[in-house]
């Protein structure tokens, strides 16, 4: 499966698409936007609006193949329309920092008027609808992600500061600053001492980029069925590709240490910063500070281009030999990767970038300013230079530029500046980035420290499909609730009809029995009238004279059980009723035992049955006794109201 990386070249502060470059481990394709067919504003707007769709179609076609996929792992934005700046804030929220960075400060003028000063974020990212402002990796966030093993390794002296005694040999105007930033600001385990408490104002690096074109490209690629793993800038790509510790941080072993001298020389601590300087063939110097592949800061500057003849070009053999000689003298080291001597093609006349001492001085000034703001500084520098640079009275060769960076940055004599020669530094960066991503987990690249988090998480076709299925489910649930509601409505109507029938029924009965209840007074209900009438009639009525109180049948049954519980007595039946004669039939072995049962019934205390009599009938060897009694007479209580 081939991993592809696409770089979008833009113009007009990142608004207009110029070209696209699709690079893989073994492929390099380019797409160039067509020129507008007319200068008419309407036609020009239509042509510019159609370019992202055409580029997306070209990318979708370029990704198709026997060993390709429909996924673009990384979409890169060039440095046009982007800027890195610093800001003092007490929060790490991108939204809050974006508003603060766009607001700027108030500048007092001589005419007693004040106006807001335009910041880089306000210039390149004027609004949240068309731009992104993101806080870059801070010391606190990086320290939290550093493993205990790496911290212990730094505490034992495995970091850059204690390696081969090189820190003591640094010299130059920035040597003292580097020592204070890289030593004095670290405590045990490499963590910073005196860290500002949570919520206190602190200096942070902010990345502002105009991303309207990237959003349109993401939507166009999504329409073509192409998924984008992450969106980042060219500065992120430099950190991922050329930081020697990126392979360890992102767990991407595809670049073997024995094949990459940069990785072999990666001996700095986990929190040390690596400066990456890339000179593009089209005349731009792009630099980035990286900490294990995370972008700390970055910027770019324009270089002068010079048209040269073949005789003015320094041969690659001589240039690389000069670099190797400088490295042997302790100035720098060349990592010539995949570039054969004399392989560069030279025309009769070509435009080549020219690096001068003024360019290096501006680079050092930028680095000094960022070091003072962020309290960090690169302890290792990696330079990616074209194999052909323009020559002249002020121009520097690759070796001279590397030597000057080492001298100006205070790292002379320590071999901390490495140079890599390539015919196309930008292509080499993209190819190396694709190799690193080939075995890197996608979630490790899409996180905010290695990419633009907002664009990398932009909803696409899958999200819309998820929302569509969710809406369909909610619709089905609504239909089900509607059907249930109709059924409940029918049940309510049935209940209303039953209630009406019952009301009509009792009202008719009440009207027949007690007519006043059908037309009650305003403050009295029919039920109140009926209850009052029932109480009145109960008070005036009497109890029927022939009604006697119920006999204590249960208590008499318990008393009979005391007599009939003998083992020789077999109970056949017992008949106890308040209105009839009590009768008990039993079987006994002898007549004498029957007489004993009769005597027991007559003597039992508390019984309401008197005058027990006995009849004896033969039943085989036993005697069947029929015992009859009579309830004692009691007077019933008098009824209410008199007789």
Describe this entry's structure for a reader.
- By secondary structure, this protein is an alpha+beta fold.
- Helix content is 39%, strand content 24%.
- The chain is built from 20 helices and 23 strands.
- The strands form 6 sheets. Strands 13-12-11-17-19-15 form a 6-stranded mixed sheet, with helices on both faces.
- Helix 1 crosses helix 7 (212-223) and helix 12 (357-374) runs parallel beside helix 13 (398-408).
- The longest helix has 53 residues, at 461-513.
- The N and C termini lie far apart (112 Å).
Number of helices: 20
Task: Please compute the radius of gyration using only Cα atoms.
Answer: 50 Å
Per DSSP E runs of 2 or more residues, the count of β-strands stands at: 23
Amino-to-carboxy terminus distance: 112 Å
Content of β-strand: 15-25%
In which order are the strands of the major sheet placed?
A: 13-12-11-17-19-15
Largest sheet: 6 strands, mixed
Structural class given helices, strands, pairing?
alpha+beta
Helix content: 25-40%
- The dominant shape is elongated
Mean pLDDT: 76
Poorly predicted segments: 156-179, 181-196, 313-348, 639-643
Descriptive tags:
alpha+beta, 643 residues, five-stranded mixed beta sheet, disordered C terminus, six-stranded mixed beta sheet
Helices and strands in order, then pairings?
Layout: E1 5-11, E2 16-23, E3 28-32, H1 41-63, E4 71-77, E5 82-89, H2 94-103, E6 106-108, E7 114-116, H3 120-124, E8 131-135, H4 139-145, H5 148-155, H6 175-184, E9 202-210, H7 212-223, E10 227-233, H8 234-242, H9 246-249, H10 261-264, E11 273-280, E12 284-291, E13 294-302, E14 304-309, H11 316-328, E15 333-334, E16 349-356, H12 357-374, E17 378-386, E18 395-396, H13 398-408, E19 417-422, H14 425-438, H15 442-446, H16 453-456, H17 461-513, H18 526-540, H19 553-564, E20 570-575, E21 583-588, H20 591-603, E22 609-619, E23 622-631
Parallel strand pairs: 1-4, 4-10, 11-17, 15-19, 17-19
Antiparallel strand pairs: 1-2, 2-3, 5-9, 6-7, 8-9, 11-12, 12-13, 14-16, 16-18, 20-21, 21-23, 22-23
């Amino acid at each position: 499966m081939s991993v592809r990386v696409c770089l979008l070249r833009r113009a007009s502060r990142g608004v207009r698409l110029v070209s696209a470059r699709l690079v893989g481990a073994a492929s390099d394709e380019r797409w160039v936007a067509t020129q507008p067919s007319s200068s008419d504003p309407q036609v020009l707007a239509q042509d510019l609006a159609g370019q992202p769709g055409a580029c997306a179609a070209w990318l979708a076609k370029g990704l198709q193949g026997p060993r390709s996929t429909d996924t673009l792992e990384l979409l890169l934005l060039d440095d046009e329309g982007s800027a890195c700046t610093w800001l003092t804030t007490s929060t790490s929220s991108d939204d809050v920092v974006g508003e603060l960075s766009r607001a700027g400060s108030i500048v007092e003028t001589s005419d007693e008027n004040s106006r807001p000063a335009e910041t880089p974020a306000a210039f390149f990212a004027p609004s949240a609808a068309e731009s992104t402002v993101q806080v870059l990796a801070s010391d606190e966030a990086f320290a939290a992600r550093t493993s205990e093993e790496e911290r212990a390794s730094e505490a034992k002296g495995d970091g850059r500061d204690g390696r081969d005694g090189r820190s003591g040999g640094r010299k130059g105007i920035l040597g003292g600053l580097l020592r204070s930033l890289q030593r004095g600001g670290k405590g045990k385990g490499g963590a910073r001492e005196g860290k500002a408490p949570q919520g206190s104002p602190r200096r942070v690096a902010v990345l502002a980029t105009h991303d309207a074109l990237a959003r349109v490209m993401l939507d166009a690629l999504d329409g073509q069925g192409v998924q984008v793993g992450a969106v980042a800038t060219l500065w992120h790509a430099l950190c991922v590709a050329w930081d020697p510790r990126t392979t360890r941080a992102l767990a991407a072993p595809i670049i073997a240490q024995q094949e990459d001298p940069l990785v072999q020389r990666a001996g700095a601590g986990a929190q040390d910063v690596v400066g990456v300087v890339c000179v593009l063939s089209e005349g731009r110097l792009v630099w980035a500070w990286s900490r294990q592949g995370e972008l700390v800061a970055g910027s770019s500057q324009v270089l002068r281009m010079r048209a040269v003849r073949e005789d003015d070009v320094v041969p690659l053999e001589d240039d690389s030999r000069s670099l190797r000689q400088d490295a042997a003298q302790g100035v720098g080291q060349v990592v010539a990767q995949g570039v054969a001597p004399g392989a560069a093609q030279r025309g009769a006349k070509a435009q080549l970038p020219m690096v001068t001492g003024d360019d290096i001085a501006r680079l050092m000034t930028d680095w000094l300013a960022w070091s003072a703001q962020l309290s960090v500084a690169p302890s290792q520098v990696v330079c990616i230079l074209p194999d052909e640079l323009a020559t002249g009275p002020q121009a520097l060769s690759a070796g001279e530029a590397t030597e000057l960076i080492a001298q100006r940055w205070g790292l002379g004599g320590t071999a901390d500046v490495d140079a890599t020669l390539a015919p196309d530094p930008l292509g080499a960066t993209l190819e190396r980035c694709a190799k690193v991503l080939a075995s890197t987990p996608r979630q490790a690249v899409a996180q905010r420290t290695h990419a633009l988090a907002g664009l990398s998480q932009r909803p696409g076709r899958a999200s819309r499909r998820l929302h569509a299925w969710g809406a369909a489910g909610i619709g089905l649930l609504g239909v089900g609730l509607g059907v249930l509601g109709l059924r409940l409505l029918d049940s309510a109507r049935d209940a209303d009809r039953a209630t009406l029938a019952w009301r009509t029924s009792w009202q008719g009965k009440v009207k027949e029995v007690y007519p006043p209840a059908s037309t009650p007074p305003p403050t009295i209900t029919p039920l109140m009238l009926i209850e009052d009438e029932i109480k009145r009639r109960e008070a005036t009525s009497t109890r029927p004279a022939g009604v006697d109180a119920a006999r204590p049948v249960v208590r008499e049954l318990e008393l009979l059980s005391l007599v009939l519980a003998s083992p020789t007595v077999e109970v056949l039946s017992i008949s106890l009723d308040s209105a009839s004669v009590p009768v008990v039939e039993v079987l006994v072995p002898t007549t004498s035992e029957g007489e004993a049962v009769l005597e027991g019934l007559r003597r039992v205390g508390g019984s309401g049955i008197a005058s027990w009599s006995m009849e004896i009938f033969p039943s085989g060897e036993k005697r069947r006794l029929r015992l009859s009694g009579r309830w004692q007479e009691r007077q019933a209580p008098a009824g209410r109201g008199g007789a």
